[in-house]
Amino acid sequence: MNLYEHHISTKSAQQMTKVTNMVREDIKKSGIMEGIVVVFSPHTTAGFTINENADPDVVHDMLLGFEEVFPTEAPFYRHAEGNSHAHMKTTVTGPSQTLILHDGEILFGIWQDLYFCEFDGPRNRTFFVKIMEG
Asked: What Gene3D superfamilies would the database entry show (predicted)?
């Protein structure tokens, strides 16, 4: 079976964690050289994005931008748990990403990596990787 489960512990209320190498290890284990890789977060307050890996200020700026658009505290939020901002940020990033697998490698641009986006931490999180041959 080419379904892999990962557990990560986030340390901040909001953070982006590079998980590309975890997915690359799954690809190596699967032995699949051509196909599709889907990463999925079963959480409503955490998701995935593909973005720049060269300048750490990009991650910093993205988190600040998300906070500007969807502030942690807002007088109009009604959700009792107090994490409406995290649900909105996850909706923007999405709970999953689909990656192309070619010659045993993820087809990324030169500066791209896969990030797990935590918007309601710190928490213990799970995500899944499904590798399909094709």
From this structure: YjbQ-like (2.60.120.460)
- How many distinct structural domains can be found in the chain? 1
Question: What would the two tokens of residue 27 be?
Answer: 């690809």
Write the pLDDT tens digit of every residue in 78-95.
998 889 999 999 999 999
C-beta atoms surrounding 124 within 10 Å: 9
In angstroms, the CA 45 to CA 125 distance is 10
Closest alpha carbon to 85 in 50, 51, 44: 44
42: number of Cβ within 10 Å: 11
Give the mean model confidence (pLDDT) for residues 118-133. Answer: 98
Integer Cα distance of 107 and 50 in angstroms? 12
Domain that holds residue 127: 7-133
- Cβ atoms 131, 26 nearer than 8 A: yes
How far apart (Å, rounded) are the C-alpha atoms in residues 26 and 49? 18
In a domain, 1, yes or no: no
Query: What's the predicted TM-score (pTM) here?
Result: 0.95
